[in-house]
Write a structure and sequence with these properties.
The complex is a heterodimer of chains A (972) and B (166). Chain A is mainly alpha-helical and 972 residues long. Chain A has a two-stranded antiparallel sheet. In chain A, a hairpin with a 2-residue loop joins strand 1 and strand 2. In chain A, helix 4 runs parallel beside helix 6, helix 10 (171-187) packs parallel to helix 13 and helix 17 (300-315) runs parallel beside helix 19. The two termini of chain A are 67 Å apart. In chain B, 45% of the residues lie in helices and 21% in strands. Chain B has a five-stranded antiparallel sheet with strand order 2-1-5-4-3, sandwiched between helices. In chain B, strands 6-7 form a two-stranded antiparallel sheet. Chain B is globular, with a radius of gyration of 18 Å. The chains are: A mainly alpha (972), B alpha+beta (166). At the A-B interface, helix 1, helix 2, helix 4, helix 6 and helix 8 of A face strand 2, helix 1, strand 3, helix 3 and helix 4 of B.
Chain lengths: 972, 166
C-alpha cells in the first residue's frame, strides 16, 4: 500500500518535472522502493553503481549530468554500498568553476572522506583557493568543507585565510569562519592557540549571530581553563541581560523568546565561570532572577531556558533565593504531563539535591511515578537520581530494585553500568555484612562477567579482613556464612568465571576454618569446579591453589589427609598442562605434600591472607655477596642512566609519554620555551631510575599476582604460594577505613567508620529525631499522600528516608507502637510488594571525572611544596588534549602520564618483573597526602569505564571534595 | 556539540545521514540499524530523549521526532540542552516544510542535496549557527538563485574542462 502511494506521488511529481532530477534517478528510487528483499535492493544498486562507474569515467558526459551522477553515488553510499570508486570524481568536481558543481563536489567530498583520507590532500589546495574567492557562497562552501576535512597537518595551510575571513563583510562568512577556527581548535589546540584572542574580539561583533557563534568556541575554552576568562563574567552577564530584555532585533526571536539559543549558551558559560566562585556568582543572581520571573513555561524553548537556569544555579555559588526559584520551577517540571519535562525535572532535581538534599522529599511521589513510568529514558534517569541520593537508610531498597531490573535487561552496556553501580552502593552503604555478601552474590551470579575484577578482589578482601572491627567472632561468622552460601551455589551450572574465582578462593581460605566441613569434602567440591570448567585456566588456577591451601592447613594441624583419586587426576592433568602457571601450581602442591608439619606451617600459615609481606626493595641481603664479588675483582654496577652514550630505555619511554615531541624529529619551528616543559624533561632525567623496565601497573590485580608468583618461583618454589593471596598493599579499602593498608588518613577513617555503622545507627534514634523535627511540615503532605496507594507510600518512605517514614508511620499509628525500628520493617514490606516495573539507571555522564584530577589539588589543603601539584603542572602541556566531548578521554589520557611520573620516582634498582616497588612507592607518597593519593591511585585503573565510574563515586564522598552533602548524611 | 543528524524512514531506510564526528562509511548502516531499533521499540507519547551511549559513546543523547513516515534524529553530547535540541529539530522540519511546501518523504528522497544545504546553514562543525528558519530559507534561496545563474555554462561536455583534472 505504502509503496503504491509512493509510486503515485512519484508519477505526479515526474509529470511536474520540477525537481531537477532525471527520469533515471526517479526510476532508481522507485525500483528500490519496490524491492521486496534486501537482496533485490542490493542487486539494483549494484547495477546502478556499475552504470555510474561507466558514466563517470566517460569524458563526454555533460557537466550538469555529472552533478546528478554524483548525487546518485552519494545516494547509493547512504544506503550502505561501497562507492569508493567515485571519490576521485567528487574531488575533481570541487575543482569545477561552476558553483552548483563545486558545491555538489564539496558536499560529496565532505560526506565521503574524512581528514585522514588520502584524497584529502587534493582538496586542501582547492579549499585554499576557494577561501580567497570573491563569491561568498564559494567561500562558505569551502569553509564548510574545511570544517570537515582539514586535519591537524593541513591546518597551517588554510589558517591565514580563515583568520582573514573573520573580518569578512558578510556575517554568514564571519560566522562560519569562527566555526572553522573552533573546529581547528578542537582538532589541534596548539595550532590555533595564538589566535584565541580573536574569539574574544568577535564577541563584540556588530552582528548578534556572529556573537552567538563565538560563544561556542568560548564555551570550550572556558571549560578548559575557567580562571583565565573570569574577566568576561560581567560582559557575559550584560549580554545575557540585553538578550533577555529583548534588545536584539525581533528576527532573532524564536517562538516569542528572544534568541533562546544564545541565552542557553550564555547560561552554560556562566555556570562554568561561577562554579565555586562567590564573587563571579554575585554578578549573575540579578539576571538569573529576571529570567526566572519572565520564564515562559508554556513553550518548549521557554522551558529549555528555565532548565538551563536551574543548571546554572546549581553549579554556581549557592544563593537561597535562587535555589528557591529553581526548586519551584523543578516542581513545575515534575508535575507536568509531558514526559520531556518530567525528564528535565528529574535531571534538575538530581542537580539540586547536591546542594540541598531536602528538596527531593517534596517530590517523592513524582519520583516514584517516574520510576514506574513506561518510558525507558525517564526510568533510567530516575535511577540515576536515586543513585545520587542513596544513603545508608535507603540503600537496601534502591540496590534491590536495581538488581531486580538488572536481571531483566539484555543490553550489556546498561547491565554493566547498573551492576557496577549496585556494587558501588553496596560497598559504600551496606547496612550489614550479611546483606552485603548476599547482594554481591546476586550481582556476580547475574552479571559476573560484566563486573570488573577489582570488585571481586574487594569482596575477597572484605571476607578476609572482616570489617575493621575488633570483633573476631563476627568476622568468622561472616566467613562461615559465606562458605555456606558458596557451597550451596557452587554446583549450579553456568556461573560466571569471576564468581567461581571468588568461590574457590574463599573455600580454600576458609572452607575448613570452622570445622563444619571436612577437608576432603571441600577438596571434592573444588575438584568438581576445576573439572566443570576445563577451558577456564584462571578458575582452574584458583581451584588448585585453594586445594593446596587446604592441604597445607591440614598438614600444619598435624592431621593426616588422603589424596582423593579425582584430586590426583586433577593434579596429574595440570602438571602436564600447556599453561605454565597451572603446571607450576600443580608442582607446588606436590612439593608441599612432601614437606613436614613445621615447614608447611611457616610456608602457608593459616588465615594469614591479610598479613603484609615485607619486601626488601634494596635487596640488602645481597650486600655481602656483592661485596665479595667486588673483592674478587668484578666490575661495579653502574646505573643505566649514568652510562655514557646509552639512552635509558626507561626515561625515554616515560618522556615519550609526557611529551611526545621531546625525542622525535621536529618539523615545525621552535616555539617559545615553556617553563613547564623544561621542568618536565629535567625532572625526568634527574630522577630517572637505574633501570625502569617495570611496566606501568595494569588495572587488574590478576596480572600482578601472576608476576609475583612467577618471580618468587625462581627463588623458592614454595614461597610462590603467597602469590595466591590477595595483594593488599596499595589498594584502597572500600570497607572499614577508606585508606590504603600501608597508610592511614585520620580524617577519612573516622567518617567512614560512620558509614560502616550507618545501618544500625540510622535505624535507631538518629533518624527518629530528625523526623520528629520535620514532622510538622509534613502534615499537609500526608493528606495528599493518603490518596495514593499505600504501596507507593511505603516505597517512598523507604527511599526518601526518615521524614517520609515518619509520615507513613503516623498514618498507621493506630496499629503500631511507635518505637519499633520502623525503617527495617518498612523496607521488608516494600520488598515483598514487588513492583512489576523494570528499573533502570541512566549511565553516568561523569562530570566527577574531571574533578578527580582538576579540582582536587585546589580544594584539598595541600602543603605548598607539594610534589603532586608540581607533577600536575608538568602534565599540563602533554595532557591538554583537544577532546572536549568525552570527559573520560581526557582523564584516561592523563592517567598513564601520572603513573609514568610516579614510576620515574621509584628509587630502586630492582630488575624483577614485580610491580610491587612502584605501588609501594606511590603508597609512601600517598601516606602523607591522603586526598591526592586517591586520584594518583586511580590513575592506571581509569582505562576501564566501570572502575572509573566507581572510583569517581568514591572520590565524590571523600571529605576533601565538594560533595559534602552525601557525607553529611552519613555523619548524621 | 551535535554529533550526528539522521533522517530515517519508518521502513528503516536512511534518508539523510550526516556525522559531525567522522564515522567510517562501513559503520553507517550499523548505526542506522541500532538507532532504528531503539526508536521503533519506543511507544508513542513518551519522552523524545534517549540516552545512546552504547551506540555513540559515553554521554551522548539523542532527540528524535516522529513525523509521518520519518524519524528525525539529532545526536549530541552533554554540552547541549535537550529541550533546545528538540526545538532545533522543529526548526529543521519547519524549514524543510517551507522549502518544499508541505514536505513529504519523497521530497526528501529526491532532494537530499537540498536537505544537506539547509542543514549546512543550520549546523556547522557540530555547532548550531542559525536557528531562524526564515534566515535559513533566505540563504538557501540565495544559493539556489546563484546556482541557477552560473549553471547556464555547465552544459559544456566534461572533456573540455579536463584541464582541471590531475
Amino acid at each position: 500500500m505504502e509503496q503504491l502511494r509512493t509510486i503515485g506521488r512519484e508519477l505526479a511529481m515526474g509529470s511536474q518535472g520540477g525537481w531537477g532530477q532525471s527520469k533515471e534517478f526517479l526510476d532508481l528510487v522507485k525500483s528500490i522502493g519496490e524491492a521486496r528483499s534486501k537482496a533485490e535492493e542490493d542487486r539494483i544498486i549494484a547495477r546502478e553503481l556499475e552504470h555510474l562507474k561507466r558514466r563517470l569515467a566517460d569524458p563526454d558526459v555533460p557537466r550538469r549530468k555529472m552533478k546528478e551522477l554524483l548525487l546518485r553515488l552519494v545516494y547509493a553510499e547512504m544506503l550502505g554500498h561501497d562507492a569508493s570508486f567515485g571519490h576521485i570524481h567528487a574531488v575533481k568536481m570541487t575543482h569545477d568553476e561552476s558553483l552548483p558543481l563545486k558545491r555538489t563536489g564539496y558536499l560529496a567530498v565532505a560526506l565521503f572522506l574524512d581528514e585522514r583520507h588520502d584524497l584529502v590532500i587534493l582538496v586542501v589546495n582547492t579549499i585554499q583557493k576557494d577561501l580567497r574567492s570573491d563569491n561568498y557562497l564559494v567561500v562558505c562552501a569551502a569553509l564548510t568543507a574545511a570544517c570537515r576535512l582539514i586535519g591537524e597537518e593541513a591546518i597551517p595551510a588554510v589558517l591565514p585565510q580563515v583568520v582573514e575571513l573573520l573580518a569578512h563583510p558578510k556575517e554568514a562568512v564571519r560566522k562560519k569562519a569562527i566555526m572553522a577556527l573552533h573546529r581547528f581548535y578542537q582538532r589541534s589546540p596548539s595550532s590555533v592557540s595564538h589566535l584565541i584572542s580573536n574569539f574574544r574580539k568577535r564577541l563584540c561583533d556588530n552582528d548578534p549571530g556572529v556573537m552567538g557563534a563565538t560563544l561556542c568556541p568560548l564555551y570550550d575554552l572556558i571549560l578548559e581553563e575557567p580562571n583565565s576568562y573570569k574577566d568576561l563574567v560581567v560582559s557575559f552577564v550584560n549580554i545575557l541581560k540585553q538578550v533577555a530584555e529583548r534588545r536584539l532585533p525581533t528576527s532573532y526571536d524564536y517562538h516569542q523568546m528572544p534568541a533562546p539559543f544564545i541565552q542557553i549558551k550564555l547560561l552554560k558559560i556562566l555556570a562554568v565561570l561561577g562554579s565555586g566562585d562567590k564573587q563571579a556568582s554575585g554578578h549573575m543572581y540579578t539576571v538569573l532572577g529576571d529570567i526566572f520571573r519572565k520564564g515562559d513555561t508554556a513553550s518548549n524553548i521557554g522551558n529549555a531556558i528555565l532548565y538551563e537556569c536551574i543548571c546554572c544555579i546549581s553549579s554556581i555559588f549557592p544563593n537561597p533565593k535562587m535555589l528557591e526559584a529553581a526548586a519551584e520551577t523543578t516542581s513545575k517540571f515534575l508535575k507536568s504531563d509531558s514526559h520531556n519535562l518530567k525528564y528535565m525535572g528529574i535531571d534538575a532535581l538530581g542537580r539540586l539535591i547536591k546542594i540541598n538534599p531536602d528538596i527531593a522529599e517534596e517530590h517523592q511521589l513524582a519520583v516514584i511515578d517516574c520510576l514506574e513510568d513506561p518510558d525507558d529514558t525517564l526510568k533510567r534517569k530516575t535511577f540515576e537520581l536515586l543513585y545520587k541520593m542513596t544513603k545508608s537508610t535507603n540503600v537496601e531498597v534502591i540496590v534491590d530494585r536495581m538488581i531486580e531490573y538488572m536481571i531483566n535487561i539484555t543490553d550489556h552496556h546498561y547491565k554493566t553500568e547498573i551492576a557496577s553501580r549496585c556494587v558501588e552502593l553496596a560497598e559504600q552503604f551496606a547496612p550489614s555484612n550479611q546483606w552485603f555478601i548476599q547482594t554481591m552474590n546476586k550481582v556476580f551470579e547475574h552479571a559476573g562477567d560484566l563486573v570488573n575484577i577489582r570488585v571481586a578482589h574487594n569482596l575477597m578482601r572484605l571476607i578476609a579482613e572482616g570489617f575493621g572491627e575488633e570483633d573476631e567472632g563476627a568476622d568468622s561468622q561472616l566467613r562461615s556464612s559465606a562458605v555456606d552460601s558458596y557451597l550451596r551455589i557452587v554446583g549450579e551450572p553456568k556461573l560466571p568465571s569471576l564468581f567461581l574465582q571468588i568461590i574457590c578462593w574463599v573455600l580454600g581460605e576458609y572452607g575448613t576454618a570452622d570445622g563444619k566441613y571436612s577437608a576432603s569434602y571441600i577438596i571434592g567440591k573444588l575438584c568438581d569446579v576445576a573439572e566443570a570448567h576445563l577451558t577456564d585456566d584462571t578458575v582452574k588456577a584458583y581451584a588448585i591453589s585453594a586445594i593446596l591451601k587446604i592441604f597445607a592447613f591440614e598438614i600444619a594441624l598435624g592431621r593426616k589427609i588422603d589424596m582423593l583419586p579425582e584430586c590426583q587426576t586433577l593434579v596429574d592433568e595440570l602438571s602436564a598442562s600447556h599453561s605454565t602457571d597451572l603446571q607450576q601450581r600443580a608442582y607446588e602442591l606436590q612439593a608441599l605434600l612432601g614437606l613436614d608439619k613445621h615447614a608447611v606451617g611457616s610456608v602457608m600459615p593459616a588465615d594469614a591472607s591479610c598479613e603484609d609481606i615485607e619486601v626488601d626493595r634494596n635487596l640488602s641481603f645481597l650486600n655481602n655477596y656483592v661485596q665479595q664479588a667486588l673483592e674478587n675483582g668484578a666490575a661495579p654496577y653502574i646505573p643505566e642512566s649514568e652510562r655514557s652514550g646509552v639512552i635509558s630505555v626507561g626515561s625515554y619511554r616515560s618522556q615519550e609519554q609526557q611529551e611526545t615531541a621531546a625525542h622525535t624529529l621536529r618539523f615545525e619551528a621552535y616555539e617559545m620555551p615553556k617553563p613547564s616543559l623544561a621542568l618536565a624533561t629535567s625532572q625526568a632525567s634527574m630522577s630517572t631510575p637505574t633501570v625502569d623496565l617495570v611496566p606501568v601497573p595494569e588495572p587488574g590485580y590478576y596480572k600482578e599476582y601472576h608476576q609475583t608468583s612467577r618471580s618468587q618461583a625462581s627463588g623458592d618454589a614454595l614461597s610462590g604460594e603467597f602469590g595466591v593471596k590477595l595483594r593488599l598493599d596499595g589498594v584502597q579499602k572500600k570497607w572499614g577505613r577508606p585508606t590504603y593498608s600501608s597508610s592511614s588518613t585520620p580524617s577519612s577513617s573516622a567518617s567512614s567508620q560512620q558509614a560502616t555503622n550507618g545501618g544500625s545507627y540510622s535505624d535507631g534514634g538518629g533518624s527518629t529525631n530528625s523526623s520528629q523535627m520535620r514532622e510538622s511540615s509534613y502534615g499537609s503532605k500526608r493528606q495528599q499522600s493518603t490518596e495514593v496507594s499505600a504501596e507507593k507510600q511505603r516505597l517512598a518512605a523507604s527511599l526518601f528516608g526518615s521524614a517520609a517514614a515518619k509520615a507513613d508511620r503516623k498514618a498507621q499509628a493506630s496499629r503500631k507502637t511507635a518505637k519499633e525500628s520502623p525503617l527495617v520493617e518498612k523496607v521488608t514490606v516494600t520488598n515483598a510488594a514487588t513492583q512489576p516495573v523494570k528499573e533502570q539507571v541512566i549511565p553516568a555522564a561523569p562530570p566527577p571525572d574531571l574533578l578527580d584530577l582538576g579540582d582536587e589539588p585546589v580544594s584539598s589543603s595541600t602543603p605548598s611544596a607539594d610534589p603532586f601539584s608540581q607533577l600536575e603542572g608538568l602534565l599540563g602541556p602533554a595532557s591538554a588534549t583537544p577532546v572536549i566531548s568525552g570527559t573520560s578521554d581526557t582523564s584516561t589520557s592523563k592517567a598513564p602520564d601520572l603513573m609514568s611520573i610516579f614510576s620515574d620516582d621509584v628509587p630502586t634498582g630492582a630488575t624483577s618483573g614485580s610491580t610491587d616497588p612502584i605501588l609501594g612507592d606511590v603508597n609512601s607518597m600517598s601516606s602523607h597526602k591522603g586526598g591526592t593519593s586517591v586520584s594518583a591511585k586511580k590513575g592506571p585503573s581509569l582505562q576501564d569505564a566501570l572502575q572509573k565510574d566507581a572510583a569517581a563515586r568514591q572520590v565524590g564522598v571523600t571529605p576533601t571534595v565538594n560533595n559534602p552533602n552525601l557525607f553529611k548524611d552519613l555523619l548524621g | 556539540m551535535i554529533q550526528a543528524v539522521m533522517v530515517i524512514s519508518t521502513q528503516a531506510k536512511p534518508r539523510l545521514l550526516k556525522f559531525y564526528n567522522f564515522q567510517p562509511p562501513e559503520k553507517h548502516q550499523d548505526l542506522v540499524r541500532s538507532v532504528f531499533q531503539l526508536l521503533s521499540a519506543r511507544p508513542d507519547s513518551v519522552s523524545n530523549f534517549v540516552e545512546v551511549d552504547s551506540i555513540f559513546g559515553p554521554g551522548t543523547k539523542m532527540v528524535y521526532k516522529h513525523l509521518a513516515t520519518l524519524y528525525f534524529v539529532f545526536v549530541f553530547d552533554n554540552s547541549e540542552n535537550e529541550l533546545a535540541m528538540l526545538d532545533l529539530v522543529q526548526v529543521f522540519v519547519e524549514t524543510l516544510d517551507r522549502c518544499f511546501k508541505n514536505v513529504c518523504e519523497l521530497d526528501i528522497v529526491f532532494n537530499f542535496n537540498k536537505m544537506h544545504t539547509i542543514l549546512d546553514e543550520m549546523i556547522l562543525g557540530g555547532q548550531v549557527i542559525e536557528t531562524s528558519s526564515e534566515e535559513i530559507m533566505k540563504s538557501v534561496e540565495e544559493i539556489a538563485r546563484l546556482e541557477k545563474q552560473s549553471s547556464t555554462t555547465s552544459l559544456i561536455p566534461k572533456s573540455i574542462s579536463e584541464r582541471f583534472s590531475r
